[in-house]
Amino acid sequence: MNTLISNIDIGIIIGYLVLVLVIGFIISLKTRTGEDLFLGGKSFGWGLIGLSLFASNISSSTIIGLTGAAYTTGIVNSVYEWMSGLPLIIAALIFVPLYLKNRITTIPEFLNLRFDYRSRLFFSFITIVSTIMIDTAGTLYAGILVLQEFFPGLDMKTTAYVLALIAGIYTAFGGLKAVVYTDAIQAIILIVGCSIMAYMMFSDLDFSWSTIVASAPENHFSVVRPLDDKGLPWPGLMLGVPILGFWYWSTNQYIVQRILGAKDLNNARWGVILAGFLKVIPLFIMVIPGAMAISLFPGIVEGDKVFPKLVVEVLPVGLVGIVLAGLISAIMSSIDSALNSSSTLVVIDFIKPNVKNLTEKQVVNAGRICTVVFMLIAARWAPQIEHFPGLWDYLQQMFSIIVPPIAVVFLLGVFFKRGNRHGAFWTLVIGTLLGVFFFILGKYELWSVHYTINVGIMFLLSAIIFISVSLMTAPPASHQIDSLTFNPAYIKEGVQEMPWYANYINQMIALVLLIVGILIWLW
């Protein structure tokens, strides 16, 4: 096989893959129950949760996309990263205590408790399809495209199956605990590898921020853009980004599952806040290096080529292997999280309620079978994406449009006690159909509003549907929803007699100040 990297770097990558499989095998020996497989035995501390949240969120497409976008259009898209701390704070304040107190295994299960089984199944089905067909397959496809830059001639289909197989094996047998432990390792490798590359690029520019800014196009380092900006107009920054962030960090099974596996409420909250701080790091080790590349490597036409160019040109032998191991880590951590969360949804939301008297062994086997099936589907679908030019952009935009009804049902569901099961179900159904309608209009260029602004519009329409239908139908019984709606007392629960530095509220304040500082800096 032709390759642009050394045998030493290849050896590092192979060693990493072997390590991941060994960890998965060791953990699989202790995975005996459904709770072990799906929630890691509820044994996760804050460090593992924070690192796993970070790693699962950073996919290969994120690394390539952030670096390439910073090179071609500026750092505006980095807001999806460092502003993640705000929706994570909402999760820690409001939703984490509700989820843990009700001892749920899946997020759709919360909808079942708050509303009814219809909303649970609808939301679960939408989540499974989008996770496997968009997130997992998209991560595989984007990752393979990048690996082909380093290994010319790498076969798309074979590589898809190999990556999916490795992630699928340790996920199927080790469950969420294997996912979280490998994610923690992957997060560290990714941060270390990209940090080294960023440091070396800074040194090439004499560690001068003024030199970096002066060599870039005007507004390249600004995140507040005009209304006609194609990347992220300012209304989208104010409306779309927070809603998309809330959905992703508070209602997405793919992400929230490791929070559900926390050993207690405090560790869950600390892990969420740690993830918020970690999400600031990509700005400095992925985004700004991409913007700096304009000075060091001018003339790169395709944004997706920027990251591979930096790895090959900036790093010496050995360090290339570490960074590529980090890239593969990003691919694997996204795949394993998606596979585990999807199998959890199928078993907990569809199989267990309809098949009575399942033994723990049968639950575990069902979860493992689902993981393998989803692994094969994602690997089979990923190579097909290249035959549909432009489809992936459309899918991502449609994915963003269908988020608002979900966000409305959860947000209003915990604050608007008058909201009922009919309001929730019809908001999900009608909101999703409206999302498809806007997607079709956009495809035929009949609706040109930026998709982040669409998110705000759709959120408002979905809220009107939820409130209207709920008010026109019978209210829920108050005693049935008391433990499923916001209670201010939950905010201070567990922080009494705790040192100031361990109080998650103080940690949140520090995180907010950091985010506001970055916003002012990059305004």
Please characterize this protein's 3D structure.
The chain is mainly alpha-helical and 523 residues long. It has two domains: 40-385, Sodium/glucose cotransporter (Up-down Bundle); 388-491, no CATH class. The chain is 73% helix and 0% strand. It contains 23 helices and no strands. The chain has helices at 7-28, 34-39, 46-57, 60-72, 79-82, 85-101, 107-114, 117-150, 156-204, 209-214, 234-251, 253-260, 265-278, 281-296, 306-314, 319-351, 360-381, 391-401, 403-415, 421-443, 451-472, 478-481, 504-521. α8 packs parallel to α20. The longest helix has 49 residues, at 156-204. The radius of gyration is 22 Å and the shape is globular. The N and C termini lie far apart (47 Å). The mean pLDDT is 87.
CATH level 1 class label of the largest domain = Mainly Alpha
CATH fold node name of the largest domain: Sodium/glucose cotransporter
State the order of secondary-structure elements, H for helix, E for strand.
HHHHHHHHHHHHHHHHHHHHHHH
Number of domains: 2
Low-confidence stretches: none
Mean pLDDT across all residues, rounded? 87
CATH homologous superfamily placement of the largest domain: Sodium/glucose cotransporter
Strand content: under 5%
Distance between the termini: 47 Å
CA-atom Rg in angstroms: 22 Å
Largest sheet: none
Q: CATH architecture of the largest domain, please?
A: Up-down Bundle
Number of helices: 23
What's the total number of strands? 0
Helix content: over 70%
Q: Which structural class do the helices and strands define?
A: mainly alpha
Shape annotation: globular
